[in-house]
Specification:
The chain has 15 helices and 20 strands. With 482 residues, it is of the alpha+beta class. It folds into 2 domains: 246 residues, no CATH class; 200 residues, Gamma-glutamyltranspeptidase, small (S) subunit (Glutamine Phosphoribosylpyrophosphate, subunit 1, domain 1), CATH 3.60.20.40.
């Protein structure tokens, strides 16, 4: 394979993932190779947020080519599952199929090299940090309720070294035999057996039929440039709907810095009213008019309160990757697969009502919403954040701060944020529009600056003056140019 030595900018949810991305780039890997390496390390070091039992959403943009979106998410079981079953929440894990599609399309290095940092970490041990220890404490009762208490992680405390031989073996198998082997043979059988112990109706046929999809992202105009988001089943289209309204009503936002945040809140809540239509209507939702109260809060709510997931963005001289990996809730369903050392997602809890109501053999609307913005100034920037329904809101605020306040990416990330959630408005200390928002009827819930509820933006890209990177202190995101 071709060897290259080029500078890389990357921002990820974990320092070891950032280092893995840099190392793979220095070994001659593409930006996509580096992203996969970072994902794999996150699966080892942050199993509360992501894992091989979860999903991947990823957009890859090359300097001279149109962007493509990799959708690595799975469907519910083809055979209908019982109501109110933990097993019903488990969909076919799509992450590894996403790796397969991305590597086939953009990979320059072999799988063994790409996965080696994660394999070594699983084999030699990762130190349990405060976030992982807290997640274990918070979710222990869920594991106990399921009887899935055999995971060695549950015996560890902060500062301990945790070795994961089963996960290391699984990663080795995928490196040796191919990513597609996750969906067949003993691997698929082990996942199906674990899921069925808890009421799932998944079968090995569900795994055999699964494929990641590769498609064009949804494109909309933004500030003389283009905003590209993940297509359905991702709810990234909601970001496009809200940003499109903002772009078309620039004069209103430019009148006053304080009214801007009110309009962003209202546009976001108006767009979220279409969430249940995402899968059926997709890109056509961009033509749907948003009803935005320009003076006072309608308090429609809509966005829900989840805070999980991990972001990875990578930029080289000729390629930008925006991606998110997730098992949904902390440790997903908490269904443990002992033979593989992984837990399974609970993405099926993303089914809601109407067109997004539970259906066998279908996708739920998916919260993962990575994005890429191409500006009129020649910048291509990848952006992503965890936070489920907060993702759309956080990215809209960051984009608006860059556009209307002239902030660079790091300044925009550091700016205090709000989050619409269940009819209220969570707001960070020091937010300059707090008084205006309250005067317009928003119900404010004040939070300390840096609360992880407000996301953890990762940003990287390239422009006329070189590579760009941004990192969010709210959850210890690490960004580096290496």
């Amino acid at each position: 394979m071709t060897k290259r030595n080029e500078t890389i900018a990357c921002s990820t949810a974990h320092r070891l993932a950032t280092q893995a991305a840099i190392d793979i780039s220095r070994a001659g890997g593409s930006a996509a190779d580096s992203a996969i390496a970072a994902h794999a390390v996150i699966c080892v070091a942050m199993p509360q947020a992501a894992g091989l039992g979860g999903d991947l959403m990823m957009i890859v943009a090359s300097r001279d080519d149109a962007a493509l979106a990799v959708t690595g998410s799975g469907r519910s079981a083809i055979v209908a599952s019982p109501t109110n079953s933990v097993g019903r929440s488990i969909t076919v894990p799509g992450l590894v199929s996403g790796w397969h599609s991305a590597h086939e399309r953009w990979g320059l290095l072999d799988r063994q090299t790409i996965l080696q940092p994660a394999i070594e970490l699983a084999r030699n041990g990762v130190t349990i940090d405060a976030d992982l220890a807290s997640a274990v404490s918070g979710q222990r009762r869920r594991f106990e309720a399921l009887g899935d208490t055999g995971w060695s992680l549950l015996e560890k405390s902060q500062g301990d070294t945790w070795i994961q031989p089963e996960l290391a073996d699984l990663l080795e198998k995928l490196a040796r035999d191919g990513f597609d082997h996750f969906y067949e043979g003993e691997v698929a059988a082990a996942i199906v057996a674990a899921a069925r112990r808890h009421g799932s109706t998944l079968t090995v046929d569900d795994f055999a039929q699964h494929r990641a999809t590769l498609a064009e992202p949804v494109r909309s105009s933004w500030s003389g440039g283009t905003l590209e988001v993940q297509p359905a089943p991702s709810q990234g289209i909601i970001l496009s709907m809200a940003s499109r309204w903002i772009d078309q009503n620039r004069a209103l936002l430019e009148e006053s810095p304080t009214i801007r945040d009110h309009l962003l809140v209202e546009a976001t809540e108006a767009a979220f009213e279409s969430r249940d239509d995402v899968i059926e209507n997709g890109e056509s939702l961009l033509s749907r008019a948003l009803v935005v109260n320009e003076s006072s809060a309608d308090r429609r709510g809509g966005p829900r309160g989840y805070v999980h997931t991990a972001g990875v963005v990578v930029a080289t001289a000729d390629q930008v990757v925006s991606s998110l990996v997730s098992v949904f809730d902390d440790f997903g369903s908490c269904v443990f697969v002992p033979e593989l050392g992984i837990t399974l997602n609970n993405r099926g809890d993303g089914f809601t009502e109407k067109e997004n109501s539970y259906r066998p053999g279908e996708y739920p609307v998916h919260t993962l919403a990575p994005a890429i913005v191409r500006t009129r100034d020649g910048v291509t920037l990848a952006l992503a954040t965890p936070g489920a329904d907060g993702q759309v809101q956080t990215l809209l605020q960051v984009l608006s701060a860059m556009e209307f306040d002239g902030q660079d990416i790091q300044e925009a990330i550091d700016t205090p944020r709000w989050r619409s959630e269940n009819g209220s408005l969570l707001i960070e200390a020091g937010h300059p529009a707090a008084a205006d928002l309250e005067s317009r009827g928003h119900t404010l819930i004040h939070q300390e600056y840096g609360d992880p509820i407000f996301g953890a933006v990762v940003a990287a890209g390239f422009g006329p003056h070189g590579l760009i990177v941004g990192a969010d202190s709210r959850r210890g995101v690490v960004g580096r140019i290496g």
